[in-house]
Amino acid sequence: MPSTEAELRALDRQIADLMQQKAAVQARLEREAGGARAKQMSAEVVDSNPYSRLMALKRMGIVDNYEKIRDFSVLIVGLGGIGSVAAEMLTRCGIGKLIMYDYDTVEIANMNRLFFRPEQAGMTKTAAAKQTLHSINPDVIFEEYTMDITTTANFEQLLDRMQHGGVDGKSKIDLVLSCVDNYAARTALNQACNELNQEWLESGVSEDAVSGHIQFLLPGRTACFECLPPLIVASGIDESTLKREGVCAASLPTTMGLVAAMLVQNVLKYLLGFGQVSYYLGYSAMNDFFPSDVMRPNPECSNVQCRKQQAVPEHAGWTPMVWKALGYGGKENLVVEHEDNEWGIELGGDDEAVGLGVTEAPAAAETSKLASGLSFAYDQPSTAPAAAAEEDNSASVSDADVSLEDLMGQLKSL
């Protein structure tokens, strides 16, 4: 006798419960096993060493200190099409610690993405991610939290992990990755990072699934999420035709995988100190276009903590970092600005900043000042009417100095 739909759903729930129990048992066994984590990365070139190809970056002179990646802790919020793939990439790269947040469960509809498996349907995304990632690299320390960070209690818990989630369990984390798909979660992360002066990377993919972006946010130095309307990459498609009743947002694993790769590439460059970190990097699949820009903070930002960070003297004098590539002959041909700066990294002045496409953040966003191919998601309310009102008031005050007789004379002449 064939099973009914209700019986199939019941079986799915039982399977999900068993998977959760299995994950819990595995976690307990891992804690009891203790010292299974390798003490250091080996550069030995053998088939049994998972780090040999990564450590080759050091031997080739690309990264001077790749083994230091195990000292870093990264917090990821959102384990969807970008976040889950980014978590896998960081795990394979040997990151020291991953702290993962999500409040959703794995569904069959997620199978067009690159990470989750059908048998994990019904599990929480955090438990499923930890299960898979630990099997890939048991040397990484994992923490998972199934919660909505936009609630007051959970927001406080997030702040605590940001301050004490380092590899040693005491120090602050090194970087936050925002891989969420809603405005409330982004603003919550923006607030947390502004309060703690925490560097973070934000990412996203458009509803039509053919464009995406990453953005590196430095509190008080680059525009925060509330300084300006979010940037979008022009796709050349009429957006009025995208949203239709009964049609969900599109999802392409290729676009999400590419954005996740851009995200993690910049994580590695920032943490390990090689190459040029992108402050804003967009992607349009329709013409393989990669616009970039640097967004300055808005002095009139609505976020109080952002304005406080802008007032910090060290932040006020900040200029975008400009990386100089090695010469053909290696380090010998590199012009080093400082003796202890073997990578040729320097803080660019006005000339270098222009080369990066720096966009100053005015009180009202001006699309004309953006890099080619970028636009704001919506128009920011202008402060011009308020200024005009002040001018009108000042004019009224000056008129009040005119004598009553003169005013009567002006009226009679009309």
From TrEMBL:
Extract one GO molecular function annotation from the record: ATP binding
Q: What is this protein called?
A: Ubiquitin-like modifier-activating enzyme 5
For region Disordered, the annotated ranges are 381-400
Species lineage, top-down?
A: Eukaryota, Sar, Stramenopiles, Oomycota, Peronosporomycetes
Matching entries from InterPro entries are given as: ThiF/MoeB/HesA (IPR045886), ThiF_NAD_FAD-bd (IPR000594), Ubiquitin-activating_enz (IPR035985)
> Repressor as a keyword?
no
Tell me the keywords, alphabetical order: ATP-binding, Coiled coil, Metal-binding, Nucleotide-binding, Ubl conjugation pathway, Zinc
Q: Where is the secretion signal located?
A: none
| Pfam entry (one) | ThiF
Can you give the residue ranges of the THIF-type NAD/FAD binding fold domain?
A: 51-302
Per the UniProt record, the source organism is Phytophthora sojae (strain P6497)
